[in-house]
Amino acid sequence: MPSGGGWRLCGLGRLIAAAACACVLMSPRPATAAIGAPATLCRTFTPGATDVDASAASRLAEEAGRAEQALATSGESVPEFTPRSLDLPPGAPSPAARAAYCSAIGELARRGAFGNPLDAPGYLHVAFQYAEQARADALTARVAYRLGLSLTGSAVAMGGRGAQIPGEVEETYGATNDDSGATRSLASNRRRSSMLDEPHGAAACNALLAMAGYPPPGMALSCAAQLGDADTAARADLQMARLLLGRSHMMSGQSDAYRRAAGQVATHRLKVSGERTSTELRLRLAETAIDALRSGEATDPSVSDTVAALEAARAVDDEAGLRAYAAALHGRLVALRDPGAAMPYFERAIALESLRPSPLRLGDWYLLAADADPDHRAADVRSAYAALVSVRGLLPLRDPVTEESTFQLHERRVFESRIADVLQAIPTTSPGAGPMRLTPVQAGQLAGAQDILETYRQAEVSDALGNECLPTPLRVQSQQLRADEIILYPVLLPDRVEIIYLRGGGDGQFRRLQPNGNYNREKVAALVDSLRGALFARARTGWEAPSRELYDLLITPIEGQLDPRQTLVVIPDSTLSALPFAALKAADNRYLIQKTRLVIAPGLAYAQPGSVRAGRRAFVAAGSLDHDVPLSFGTFPKLMNASSEARMAAGWVGATHVGSGYYMKDFSADDLRSVLLTHDVDVLHLATHAEFSGGTDRSFIVANGGFITLRELSTIISDSKVHGKVLDLLVLSACETAVGDDRSSLGLAGAAVQSGARGAIASLWPVDDESTKNLMFDFYAAYRGGASKAGAIQTAELKAMGLKQNPYYWASLILIGGWR
Questions:
Q1: What are the distances in angstroms from CA 144 to CA 138, 209, 228, 319?
Q2: What is the average pLDDT score of the chain?
Q3: Which of 394, 480, 699, 785 is 20 to 30 A distant from 198 in Cα terms?
């Protein structure tokens, strides 16, 4: 287990903290597994359906029960379920039977039991219509809640070089095609619908019924809150409040409005549900209402009354964790007025949580104490980190109630707080100064800080992949680096930006630069958003100012050590993972890619240099699609330049094969398996539509006949590794890896490493088809000419820069790991 807490335990190992985690990459059920009943019953709503055959409803009810049982017993894991093909007569069974079945099928699809979670909203929307037709309020509420979850967490977004969205969805969201033919993602268009303006209650249910396309998630949740029992309504409103609160962190201009709305939703549910709602849900609602408050703001009496009642209630006294939770919330309410007066409550929460066999939230309560008592902050932060390390193997990837990321909710702040304290004790140095010899104590502190940073980065990758059970990667060692290779490790903290770096060929020690207190995580995130937004719009202005500001912050401190023949390996904080570092512009108007070669790696564990070919010709297996591919959630049109790009990558010039490679026209999953098992492939190049949307089950590439999830692709590559064949580079030239999600490139890198590939090339935004083709032509020309992968990317981008100045056209491609 890596230092600092290591990976979560998986399978039964999570239940036994001492058990070893033995992970096996399993191929997901293929997309065709849902053929039969799900395809015929849950894709299209048929008004007026009745029970033509009495046995039809019975058979479908039995299948729905089997599916619900799989959901109920699976816990956090993917349910074990294979839907049966049911031979049902036309028009049967009844709306209620169809609704119950399609509700279970939709939830199974959402949780990755078969097919793709992108299918889930369609299944559930059909289920909702049948449930409404059957006048089954409890079932309608359950379906509406599941529909809201599917729309909240689903990657209903298609990027790459141009995916067409079905007409009814396009009409709903106002999607338009840009001049390159790429349809904007549904995820982006959904942002146009303000949750503050959505219909509520019965109006939301009626709007859902009338809507042809996918609704905004808040509409479905509002309907569930109107029709459900006390706990269902509380879950729906809690989910809605959490969505609004999350939106408040994204929408700077409307931040306060979303924050207040979140508090109002949570508070309203506390008032109307009262004791009819479970203790856990009441505490969650109270916590969300408190999260929505700013220091000094008045608290609604229903929140404070609920917390006080729960803290004193005998039902809570029976469970130390809930008692601790209530005490911590009471302390947070007191801290809004007087932080110091809150300490007794936080101490009580710590004491109660410590009584639990698995004190899962002990780190949270120690951090509250650290905030309330600055004099003892360092000790409390150390205790918070120690508490987190002791239970990380037991924490689920997702919160079991709200399905939010556990890493984002409970781990990130503990990591950040501990890193901030440890780094503070390490002396700074000037990058131009000679080597600074650290004392043994300082060297130990720096090593400890790096261990924490690496555990932090690996936890981010696990979170981005949606997979808690990953192979332990090997951290790059300083002696592996050459003198022309530099590792840059920026760390974004709530109160400052820290930078540590390592230059190869020296004494092997990282250096800590002077921290910059004028910037913090939020300010840097705003700069990244501003830069990316202007680039997406292909604006001539608006991107240069944030580009230069970010260059000054991140690059200027080491600028004197950069050279076009050197390689800069950046290990970005997650907010920086979506940043096109190549487009950062210096005061002399030169871009960073003109000053050095660039590589991105999510951590030292994912920064292996890769192999050096030493004159050996690389074997490239390349695939493309030459026709439209209709899928249930949209049609992916033929890519005009993909076949010529893939043929070139495989070594074809016209009708002549001049290189070392293999071309797969209209490739399928079987084609990939075959070529990787029968050839010693160095590079796998796929010119196709692709989407990375948080989690290997929700991310996919489009292939002939359907899609291949990244988990399945990882399995295909891993199978070839078992046979002694190691893939040096995975190229997804049409992949949109990080739009709307700054963790996505982390996930792609993790997927590449998880699969056994040493590195990956992908795109940070929807790429221009013609520009990508030219970039890849120039990349392979340089690569086949003997350049390193980082050098070939640099050559291609510099050539493209000479044709089109706007970085939109050349800065999207990034190399992740494996740079030599």
A1: 10, 11, 9, 32
A2: 82
A3: 699
